């Protein structure tokens, strides 16, 4: 995630959140299996399931059906303050396919973009579960994470994302007494943007200074954010892709207020590195590598392999390199090599790559400032939760991924051009109207020691 605010477009006019549990709709987690592999290369299937984030859920009064949150505003009588609201309100179960356009089948997950039921839903965000009350925590160091993806139905302005964040395995239920919903209802999200659009954080409603979004009819931001380190394995559409570590000076899920959240002009003053250190092949100088008909042909599915290399080839070593491979049509494709004037050649993310890139592109090095890969290494020691989402971008129209960005720099300046999408593309209202049937398919997730999964 690159942008500061309102990253996720979620809809559901009648839907709200709360920290108690509603019982109007049964919560049944769709099954999604993954494979765990051993160094010999043999893999076994592990049962699992997914859960949709609490932010997308209907939030209503406990025991009833009066909305606590409607559109992008809170009900003032049910939610006069954070504590009262958490006591009064419940998040309900989800109709995954009917309301949210989410289907899981065997080892395959499809997230659809716009789903029209009684309301219009835009995008979704789901987490992989170990069991019905617990997110699966991955220990990524000295391991390899692999999945197949179909981005052929994702155009400019869309982002089918697969990433890891430092959420609590139980969604914060044991740390925060007023969180009665826990992981079973998808609570406890955090990311490196210090998400302020989360309705309940640390078991409390984010109602203080809640400001409805001017462009998103279902979203707003409160005075509290939820921060944690984030390893973006995959942020992509059919035009561009990036993988990006983002680090924080706080460890584990940590709420923020004020400057610590790094909102707006305070972007580089917060506890997290909002820019991250991204490897986007197009931005790094190989414009023929990723896209329809290119070396990695996005008109058809392919496999994405990410390796987390440590300094002593052991899971307890320090993370020093994040490597990327692709597999398509049975052919292993090495990552593209950087080709930027004045910068050495790299094909992976290391601290050296990050420092050279920030220098070459004249970007603020907020990644190094907050500890670089060493900080990512510490975050990985805690275990990280797998997130899969599909979203459009009310803050920056996804231009940071697939077009020219920032918009106040000339496209000819090094590091500005990131893909072939027009600078006018990616406006959420346009994307939702013109490409409502967009979707991403993630499948065949495999996890194991480096070299074991492909
Ligand atoms: C780790 O493994 C790589 C690849 O097998 C090897 O090149 C490297 O020397 C090893 N490093 C250490 C510290 O053992
Ligand atoms: C790898 O490094 C870690 C941290 O320094 C250390 O605890 C561990 O024993 C090392 N493992 C090996 C196999 O050298």
Automatic annotation (TrEMBL):
Disordered: region residues: 409-432
Signal peptide region: 1-18
EC number, as in UniProt: 3.2.1.-
Bilayer-spanning residue ranges: none
Chemical reaction(s) catalysed: Hydrolysis of (1->4)-beta-D-glucosidic linkages in cellulose and cellotetraose, releasing cellobiose from the non-reducing ends of the chains
EC top class, as a word: hydrolase
Pfam families: Glyco_hydro_7
Domain of life: Eukaryota
Keywords: Carbohydrate metabolism, Cellulose degradation, Glycosidase, Hydrolase, Polysaccharide degradation, Signal
One Gene Ontology MF term: cellulose 1,4-beta-cellobiosidase activity
InterPro entries, alphabetized: ConA-like_dom_sf (IPR013320), Glyco_hydro_7 (IPR001722), Glyco_hydro_7_sf (IPR037019)
GO BP term, example: cellulose catabolic process
UniProt entry tagged with the keyword Transcription regulation: no
CDD domains assigned: GH7_CBH_EG
Assigned protein family: Belongs to the glycosyl hydrolase 7 (cellulase C) family.
Name this protein carries in UniProt: Glucanase
Natural source organism: Dendrothele bispora (strain CBS 962.96)
């Amino acid at each position: 995630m690159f942008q500061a605010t309102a990253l996720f477009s979620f809809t559901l006019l009648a839907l709200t959140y709360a920290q108690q549990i509603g019982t109007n709709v049964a919560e049944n987690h769709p099954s999604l299996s993954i494979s765990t592999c051993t160094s010999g290369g043999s893999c076994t299937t592990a049962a699992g399931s997914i859960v949709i984030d609490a932010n997308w859920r209907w939030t209503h009064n406990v025991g009833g059906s009066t909305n606590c949150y409607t559109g992008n505003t809170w009900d003032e009588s049910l939610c006069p303050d954070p504590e009262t609201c958490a006591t009064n309100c419940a998040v309900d179960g989800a109709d995954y396919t009917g309301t949210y356009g989410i289907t899981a089948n065997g080892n395959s997950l499809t997230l659809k973009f716009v789903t029209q039921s009684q309301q219009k839903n835009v995008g979704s965000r789901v987490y992989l579960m170990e069991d019905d009350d617990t997110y699966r925590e991955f220990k990524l160091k000295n391991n390899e994470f692999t999945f197949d993806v179909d981005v052929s139905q994702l155009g400019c302005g869309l982002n089918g994302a697969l990433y890891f964040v430092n959420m609590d395995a139980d969604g914060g239920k044991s740390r925060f007494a007023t969180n009665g919903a826990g992981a079973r209802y998808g609570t406890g999200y955090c990311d490196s943007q210090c998400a302020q659009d989360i309705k309940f954080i640390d078991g409390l409603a984010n109602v203080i200074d809640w400001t409805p979004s001017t462009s998103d009819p279902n979203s707003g931001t409160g005075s509290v954010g939820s921060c944690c380190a984030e390893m973006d394995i995959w942020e992509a559409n059919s035009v561009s892709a990036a993988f990006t570590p983002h680090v924080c000076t706080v460890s584990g899920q940590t709420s923020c207020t004020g400057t610590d959240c790094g909102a707006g002009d305070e972007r580089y003053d917060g506890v997290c590195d909002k820019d991250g250190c991204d490897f986007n092949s197009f931005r790094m100088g190989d414009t023929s590598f990723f896209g329809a008909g290119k070396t990695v042909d996005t008109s058809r599915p392919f496999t994405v392999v990410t390796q987390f290399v440590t300094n002593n080839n052991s899971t307890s070593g320090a993370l020093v390199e994040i490597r990327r491979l692709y597999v398509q049509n049975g052919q292993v494709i090495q990552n593209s090599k950087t080709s930027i004037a004045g910068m050495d050649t790299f094909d992976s993310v290391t601290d050296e790559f990050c420092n050279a890139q920030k220098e070459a592109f004249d970007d603020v090095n907020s990644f190094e400032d907050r500890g670089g890969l060493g900080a990512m290494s510490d975050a990985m020691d805690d275990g990280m939760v797998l997130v899969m989402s599909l979203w459009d971008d009310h803050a920056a129209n996804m231009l940071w991924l697939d077009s020219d960005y920032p918009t106040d720099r000339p496209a000819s300046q090094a590091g500005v051009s990131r893909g072939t999408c027009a600078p006018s593309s990616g406006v959420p209202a346009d994307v939702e109207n013109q490409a409502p049937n967009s979707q991403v398919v993630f499948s065949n997730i495999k996890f194991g020691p480096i070299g074991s999964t492909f």
